[in-house]
Amino acid sequence: ASGGGRALVRLPDGRGSCPTLCPAARYRVRFMPEDLDVGQVDTASAADTAPPRVAWVHAQTRGAAVTVQVEADEPVVVQGLLRSEAGDEVPLGPPEQVATHVWLTATAPLSPETRYEVRVEVEDLAGNRGEAAPVWIHIPALPTVAITEVVASPLRDWSDSAGGEVPFDPRPGTGAVNDNDEWVELVNLSPAPVDLLAVALELRAQDSSPSVTIVDGAPALFFGAGGGLRAWLPGEALVVRPRGSLAQRDLRLELYAAGVLLDAVALGTPVGADHPGGAPPDTSHEAVARDEVGRWRWCLPTPGDPRPATACVAP
Fold first, then answer.
1. pTM confidence score
2. Where are the CATH 2.60.40.10 domain residues in the chain?
3. Which candidate among 73, 74, 127, 267 keeps its CA 20 to 30 Å from the CA of 200?
4. The pLDDT of residue 104 is above 70
5. Does domain 54-139 have CATH number 3.90.1230.10?
């Protein structure tokens, strides 16, 4: 096959001096597409009856997605599936390929808070089959997370381009203000710590220049209570510097985990918007935040503080 691919060729039964191939004989196979000799392989004089051995299977979860690595002791075709304890099955792809090291992925989203058995079967070029020992994975439960504060029109050097200590903490720097000072605050409302590397939170900005920020890979993060990527603490606020730039008006922010919408806020003129957005009303109230009763208002910014905003003015 061209482009670095592989080809399997099987002779029809009854061709040649023996049915398919003569026993105890050696053959030389040569591929010459379009008069180009691309190589040859010598066959063995004895039949291969040994089943292939799977050296290891490693499964890694991220949100509702799964990647499975399979290593065999010889080139094999790999097939696999995920089976839940309830009997639901999700095939693993991509389509069949011949290799000793194969990567497979789930062909459909998996159910949160569910255990799956990873089943892998292999077949070598001689038709011998083998099976890997089962591996179990657990898809984590969806976290409960709220968007609590948005600074789309920054008035301070929150990124600490000059001065300051920790970017996006409550003490801004003294440098010039630009789009790099925009931020969104999230609060973990789950009863347990959240592993951000496992749940794969996505912050999507829908405006004139849409963007998607994978939270654990954001340009900058500030954990308000000392948590981290592996343990975002219950009740802790997390300040996220999103990718790109946020519009001051006609902006919708959506937070997803495993393809499920967790929270959203809309600023601007659309019907049903949570806040008018636009430029801040003064030089102090630059954050659009939730107050004690859940209304979105112009408020003093409090990055890293999970409590509802109290120092606010009219929307």
1. 0.78
2. 54-139
3. 267
4. yes
5. no
